[in-house]
Amino acid sequence: MSEALDEAWFSALGAPLGDAERAEIAGYLLGIGLPGSLPVRAASSWQEAAELCRQPAGEWWQAEEAERSRLERSARLNPADTAWLQVTERLHGAAAIAATRAGCADAALIRVAAGAATYAAYQQRLAQAAAAPPDHPFLRKYALFCGGHWPLGVYEERFAIF
Amino acid sequence: MSAYPTVKTVDEFKQQPAEYQDAVRKIVRSHALNELYGAQVFDEPAIHLAPTPYAKWLSCRVAMEEYHHHVRFKELADQIGVRPQEMDTKNKRPLNIFEVPLESWEQFCVIKMLGDLAEILQVEDLLHCSFVPLRNIARTTMPEEKFHAQFGLDFCVDLVETDDGREKVQRAVNGFYPEAPKFFGASGSKNNAIYRKYGIKLRSNEDMRADYMARARSTVEPLGIKLPELKIAA
Fold first, then answer.
1. How many CA atoms lie within 13 A of B66 on its CB side?
2. A88-122 pLDDT, tens per residue?
3. Strands A158-161 and A40-42
4. B84 near A CB under 8 A
């Protein structure tokens, strides 16, 4: 779990996506049962990211949740584990630093970003605990976070990422 | 401010009268359990009820903050000799407010708005606690508690913009609020008298409950929401 403390969380927000990241996105979408060919929408600001994720995204969320439920049948994690809480504090700190550097002082939005990273880190730990294969969609999404981006989900038939 | 001398460390705590130690243990245990119950029965389930990823992720972060509060109080509980079985939610019955099943997003927003307001009052009362390690936890958690209550209020402000939303918020207030004043304990409480005698807490249960009810009213009335009448005397 400590490796999460060293990742470059939120360090590449708004940066152009490379081919490897686009491949990761396509693999992720296919892995949760959505078309890998969905167009990608790149958000360029905290404000835009906030506006996107304030929209409902039921189909995408349910696709992820179905997989989470499946994994939780074979693995359970303690949300009050102290090492895990240390990770979540690191994620909040990273989100706060990235937002501040971009001129965003919205405490709620910073928590939203931290919560998104926390949920992805939880899904990654869950996938690992359940001995999921290395191309599991939760591990792919986690890789996008580790690369400094914030995957925002699928809205209006497009995969959004900051 | 307390006349009782400050107790700066756990080592100093162990030199205090048994009555002082027992009183502090009760408070620390209560906070540790309430934070855990809150995270388990309200905050974590709320992630799934929230209507958008924004609200889901915000709820996720809030849940982690509540779990972290639990861990802070539990670590102190361990240091001051609270027995592990007393910290297990399986052995300790929760307060009534934690036994209401969470069924809707509106209900969760109301619980954050009014339930965390109750927690704010409890934590405020520890900001000048004679036991410094407990005072420090109160000061650390207070900004997050305030954020959580504001989070609930902000979402309620959005919800009451429609007639349907206002009706759901009112229904949730009607369901939650009658139990909330019990969070402050009995009037004329002997435990509370001991807490005040040692400067662990500052205010009586009656004072805090009356303050809570007044603050709850001033929170919801601008939203066009009414608090249900209660049988409890303020």
1. 27
2. 999 999 999 999 999 999 999 999 999 999 999 99
3. parallel
4. no
3-state secondary structure of A12: coil
The residue behind tokens 């209006």 is A156
Q: Do strands A151-155 and A158-161 pair parallel, antiparallel, or not at all (unpaired)?
A: antiparallel
Residues 6+ positions from B231 with CB-CB distance below 8 Å: none
Domain boundaries, chain A: 2-161
For all residues of chain A together, what is the average pLDDT? Answer: 95
pLDDT digits (tens, 9 = 90+) for B28-74: 999 999 999 999 999 999 999 999 999 999 999 999 999 999 999 99
* Chain A touched by B68 (CB under 8 Å): yes
Amino acid at A152: L
Q: Are A112 and B63 a contacting pair at CB < 8 A?
A: no
Cα A93 to Cα A14, A89, B43, distances in angstroms: 19, 6, 21
Query: What's this model's pTM, rounded to 2 decimal places?
Result: 0.94
Give the tens place of pLDDT for each residue, A66-91. Answer: 999 999 999 989 999 999 999 999 99
Chain A positions in Cβ-Cβ contact with residue B87 (cut-off 8 Å):
none
- The Cα–Cα gap between B144 and B126 comes to 15
Q: Report the sign of the C-alpha dihedral through residues B192, B93, B171, B161, in that order.
A: positive
Which domains are assigned to chain B? 10-223 (1.20.1260.10)
How large is the ipTM? Answer: 0.96
| Joined tokens for residue B138 | 């109160």
Cβ–Cβ gap B68/A85 under 8 Å? yes
Residues of chain A with C-beta less than 8 angstroms from the C-beta of B141: none
